[in-house]
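Human: Here is a favour to ask of a fellow structure person. Comparing notes only helps if you start from a blank page. I am asking you to supply a protein in sequence and structure-token form. Write it directly below this note and I will take it from there.

Assistant:
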Amino acid sequence: MPQGKKRRRLTHRRSKSAPPSISTAVKPRQSTKRKKWTKKGMKKAIEAVETGESGVNRAALDHGIPKSTLKDRISGRVLHGRKPGPKPYLTPVEEKELAEFVKSCAGLGYCKTRKDVLNIVESVAIEKGVLVRNKSVMV
């Protein structure tokens, strides 16, 4: 260090308006908004709109459902009681059989890779007519 120059000491400055414990505390992360309505409430709201008992906005307010959610269900954009996304290629029983097959192969020392398993699923789906031949299952 050159002579004559002193090192400046850097210190953390706290806010004068807030006590030290609050200014240095980490705030907890807020939870994301999730659905707070029930299936029963949704059903009642849809019935109220379809019977003409009330409008979409009033039914949504009365049953605690977001307006856009109720509108989507009534218009048919989202089907009530269905899961979003594409239909599965295999039934739960077929999935269980595939899992047992993969486990038995692994027990014999013939491990299946992810690609092998997806090829099996693809061939079963094509055989069932669920999948078009040129469309791939690979993710």
Residues 92-107 form the longest helix (16 residues). The chain has a mean pLDDT of 81.
